[in-house]
UniProtKB/TrEMBL annotation:
Gene3D superfamilies, per the entry: Jelly Rolls
Domain Cyclic nucleotide-binding: 29-114
Superkingdom, taxonomy of origin: Bacteria
UniProt organism field: Flavobacterium johnsoniae (Cytophaga johnsonae)
Protein's UniProt name: CarD family transcriptional regulator
Length: 188
């Protein structure tokens, strides 16, 4: 839980009382590799912090899944659109490795927003961070070549190159695994 407090305090300083209130609402859950955290049609009920592990967001397809996000140790994860709208998700989230999460329910998070001064500030910073990451990826898909998107991963998201299987990486940058192999041959 220490990691969660450190992560939150990068956004705003928490008093011990605020942290005690927040941490009392956290639930510890473990997911095995390949286990879904959320499936299409389910409504997201939790905002989760990954203490250990990796999760993948994707739209299942018969031939190839469409992967659009990865989240690692020390980051928050959620089908956030489903979480805030209370509508079913249009995608699946699964553990790519054994994963340990600390989760807070939608209802408990609303209590934190209502009862603490810092809750709304942290919520705003977290939402802004998610928005910026999503916008950057969308603009890259529209403006950059597949090779440039792959090269960008070396500086912007090196953990993807190191820890994610090539088939998921290819989908993430919007190409086939074969096209990624050709790009990798040209680069190396």
């Amino acid at each position: 839980m220490r990691q969660i407090r450190e992560n939150m305090e990068r956004m705003a300083k928490l008093s011990d009382e605020e942290w005690a209130f927040f941490s009392s609402k956290l639930i510890r859950r473990e997911f095995s590799k390949k286990m879904p955290l959320l499936e299409i049609g389910q409504t997201e009920n939790y905002l989760s912090f990954i203490e250990k592990g990796i999760v993948r967001y994707y739209i299942p397809r018969e031939d190839n899944d469409l992967t659009f996000a990865f989240v690692f140790d020390g980051e928050f994860t959620s089908a956030y659109d489903s979480f805030i709208t209370r509508l079913p998700a249009n995608y699946t989230i699964e553990a790519l490795a054994d994963t340990l999460l600390w989760q807070i329910s939608y209802t408990d998070l609303q209590d934190i927003y209502a009862e603490t001064k810092i809750g709304n500030t942290i919520g705003r910073y977290a939402s802004e961070g998610l928005f910026l990451k999503k916008s950057k990826r969308e603009l890259s898909l529209l403006n950059d070549s597949a090779e440039q998107r792959y090269r960008n991963l070396f500086t912007e998201r090196p953990e993807l190159i190191q820890k994610i299987p090539q088939k998921y990486l290819a989908s993430y940058i919007g190409i086939t695994p074969q096209a990624l192999s050709r790009i990798r041959k040209r680069i190396y």
